[in-house]
Amino acid sequence: MKVRSVSLIILLLWAADVYATTVNAGLGTANLFAILGGTTVTNTGPSAINGNLGLWSGTSVTGFPPGTVSGTIDAGNASAMQAQMDLTGAYNVAASQPCGGVLTGQNLGGQTLTAGVYCFASSAQLNGNLILNAQGDANAVFIFQIGSTLTTLSGSNITIINGGTGNNVFWQVGSSATLGTASKFAGNILALSNITLDAGADISCGRALALNGAVSLDTNHVSINSAGCTDGTSAAAPEPGTAVLLTIGLLFGLACRSHVSSTRAA
Asked: Which of these, 90, 88, 38, 69, lies nearest to 195 by C-alpha position?
C-alpha cells in the first residue's frame, strides 16, 4: 500500500509539472491595437493596418493616409491610455516568467522551438527562418525575453505550425525592435522603446506595441486577425489549470479505489 501511495504522489507531481504551461502575458485592451506607440507613430507609403492604431502619451500620428487603418485611430485619448496601461502589465508579466531556455548569442534563424520561455541576456537576432511548433496545442504560448534589441535581417521569416497562433507569441524587448526589409514576422512585439518596420516588413499575426518610444512604418502590413490567425483561447482544449484539476481528480479517484480494494482484501 505504501508503494502505491508513493507512486500516486509521484504521478500527481508529474501531472502538475506537465500542465504548468507558460503563462499567457494577456494584453487586455491592447489586444485591439495592431499598432500602439508611446511618443509618435509615423508612416511612409501604403501601409495597411488591420486593427486599431493608438498613441499615448504622445499625440502625433502621421502618414495616414496614404496608410490605412481598418479600426480606429486613438491618439492621446482614454482608449489609448488604457491600452498603454494594459501593455505595461503584459510587458511585466512576460518579463517575470522563469526562463526555460537560454538562447543568448544564438541566431534564431534555422531553429525550431516548442512552446516555452526563451531568454537573451542582451540582443536577439533573426537571420533566416524560425519555426515555432505548437505541437497541436491551440493555446501554446511562446515568450521571448530580450535584454536589449531585437533585429530581424532582410527577408527573415517566422512560421507557426501545428495549431499555434501569433496572438500567443510575445517578444518582450528591453529596448528597441527593428524588422528588416521584407521580413515576415509573427507575434506581439512588446518593446520598451522604439519599433521600426523597414520597407515591406510585415507582421501577419501580431502587433507592434511600444511602451515609451515611437513606431515607424514603411509600406507594411500589420494584422491582428489575418487568415489563419485565431485566438487560441477559444480552442476546445482545457486551460492548463483545468487540466491540472482534472488530472489530480482522476488520480485521487484511483487512489481511493486502490485504498478500498486494499481494505477489502484485508
From this structure: 38
